[in-house]
Amino acid sequence: MDMQKIFIFIYFSFSALLLQAQQLDYNEYYPKDVNSGDWKYMAHSFYNNHNNSNYLSNEFSFALNNSDYIDQELKDKQMDLIKGDVLLGRKFQGGFGLWVNRTKKQNSSYFYFGMDFQQILDGNVDPDFVGLALYGNKHYAGESIEITNTEYSNVYFNRLKFGMGKSFGSGDIKQHVFGLIGFTIGQNSDYFKLQYAGLYTHPDGDYLDIDIQAKTQLADTVWANVFEINGLGASLDLHYSLIKEKDFYLAVNLNNLGFVHWNKNPFTANVDTAFRFEGVDQQEISGDFSGDRLRNMIFTNPETSAFNKALPFDIRLAAGKFFRNGEFYLGVNTTIYPGLLAKYRSEIFVTWNIRNRLQLSPILGYSSYQKLNIGLAVGVQVFQNLYFKIGSSYMNSMFVADAAAAQGGFISLVFVN
């Protein structure tokens, strides 16, 4: 192994993390009890996307995602914005589903079939790791640097979901319970953790000392397309809600509780060693290397046994109060991610319900990325049985180049018959 391989690996690891680090969950901003009326079918389609970082700017992230040239000015501007460990992540989900109420009566059982696709990326990067990726080791000549707290996970999977639910209650108070079993098709799982890296570059570039401890685990070194299967598993979604019409709403959801058995070209490895590279100039760092080749150069003794890995599940809590006979609704939505580095995101909002056909919801959000976001959600009853919803929690920052990356939104279409 030589210095060229080390820095190419650092660069590609950082780039792979950011190229997909853009931001899942659609929250109900004006809950309605659909089962208050007779219905037989309810179909929905949806897409949600959340892309966040505490220090990487919108401009810098956009350039990386579009493979644009990053000049010295943009590098310097980005490094000036970094004041600590860089937290970043992407959570997106899309899909469709169909509820069937076979008796077409209130308080009956109903059944569900649907499919969704998800990608969840979560990472934390040491500032010096960012600097090495952007400037190379020459920038740190004569300095000893230590890199810790660098870790990322990236999983992409699809689910075929089947389940049933039950509505019950009398008068204005209704309860809803349902459970969905997911047949999970794993496409990619990639995990990397740099526990420690110590580097010293001689002031004249005569040698580089590096001490590195890292580990990695992935299902396949080649990014799969939507038709490829790298693993199979199962998952569970659970829901409970309580609503009193025009009074209050409470709900709790558990999503993605499950695992995937990754068995196509599995790769698990560790490295814990020290090197000295002599007489290598930074300008020699060049070449065309695939991610697969880089992994094999850095992690020389991989384990190729299949492995099981838990899905990144989440817990969603919602509560709210109706005012003025349902004209206004004040609510809070919180999502907790126990297995991720970015642990939570929360929103408080108020919805103005205009004649039960248009809902406008200003949103104030806060998350593990330690920044306030302002957004807007809009719900429209297009026809008697068709509901369209769209919104974003990042209206204040997604169009500001130097703002910490905060992009995304949701769109949903629901048909009830």
Question: Would you kindly provide a written description of the structure presented here, covering whatever features stand out?
Answer:
The protein has 417 residues and is mainly beta. It has one domain. The chain has five helices and 18 strands. It has helices at residues 3-19, 58-65, 72-81, 127-135, 291-298, and strands spanning 41-57, 86-100, 109-125, 144-147, 150-168, 173-201, 207-218, 231-244, 248-262, 267-278, 307-310, 314-323, 328-336, 344-354, 358-367, 372-381, 386-392, 404-416. Strands 1-2-3-5-6-8-9-12-13-14-15-16-17-18 form a 14-stranded antiparallel beta barrel. A hairpin with a 4-residue loop joins strand 5 and strand 6. Helix 1 packs across helix 5 (291-298). The longest helix has 17 residues, at 3-19. It is globular and about 80 Å long.
What percent of residues are in strands?
Answer: over 45%
Radius of gyration: 24 Å
Largest sheet: 14 strands, antiparallel, barrel
Name the helicity range: 10-25%
Structural domain count = 1
Arithmetic mean of pLDDT:
84
Low-confidence stretches: 15-26, 280-290
- Which structural class should the secondary elements be placed in? mainly beta
User: Termini, distance in Å?
Assistant: 65 Å
Spatially, the strands of the biggest sheet line up as 1-2-3-5-6-8-9-12-13-14-15-16-17-18
SSE sequence, one letter per element: HEHHEEHEEEEEEEHEEEEEEEE
Shape: globular
* Number of DSSP E strands: 18
Total of helices: 5
